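Record passed on here:
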Amino acid sequence: MPLTYDQIVQICKKINDKHMPNGQAFVDAVDMWLERYTGENGKQFMFLAFKQLLFLVDEHIREIERKVNIRSTCAKGCAYCCYFPIITTRAEAKWIMMKIAELPKREQEWIHEHIQWYGEHYAEKIKRVNMLDFTEDHHFKETYMKEQLPCIFLNRQTNTCLIYEVRPIPCRTYLNYCSPNVCAESYLPDEPFSYEFLYEFYIEALHDFIQTFVYEGEDVGIDYPDDLFDMDYLFRFFVDEKK
C-alpha cells in the first residue's frame, strides 16, 4: 500500500536514527575481491568489481527496506525519473560502454544507432541543458526537467532502460514509496526517497580498489584518477564520443 508523505518523513527519521549503514560492507567487499584476484585480466576484473559494488548498493537498499517494512511503488515501464539529470563519472561511462560491448551484436548496433539518433533528435534540448552548470546552479534540476530530455538509455518505445544492470547510482538510489501519481504530477516531487548517502561508500570503495590495482601495475581500463573525478551529464560521455 502506498505511503503518505507524513509516513515517509517518519520512516526517514527512523532510518537516520537506527538503520544508517557504516560502509564496512563495502570495505570488506573490496578486501575480498582483491584476495580473489590471481593475475587474470585486470581490466575485466575491475569491470566485474564495479558491477558488484552496484549490486551491493542494491542490497543495502533492500536491507533498509526490510528493516523499516516498506516496498517501493516504482514499476517497470514507469519512467518519470528517467528525465532527471543523471550525473556520473567518465570511469562509470567507460564501464557502461564495456557492458554494451558484451551484448549481442544486433543489440550493440541498435544502441549505437539510438545514441546517434538521440544526439541529432534532441540537439536543441542538449544545447540548452549543456549551458546548465550543475556545480554552481542550485536550480539546474528544475530547468533541466522542464526540457523533458529523456535519458540517453531510455527506450521510449517500452519505457525501459537499455543498460539496467549497470544503470548509474542516481537511478538506483531514487525510489518512490508513495502513490506513483506524485511523479506524474510534478517534475520534482517531495515524496520520493533518495539513498544517495550510499554513494560515498560506493565511490570510496572504487578508489580503494583501483588504487591497489594501479599500485601493483595493473591495467584497470580507465585513466586513474582523472576518470573517477571527471563528472558530467551521462549523455555527454556518449553523444560526444559519436562526434
In short: Residues 135 and 232 are 10 Å apart (CA to CA). DSSP finds twelve helices and six strands in the chain.
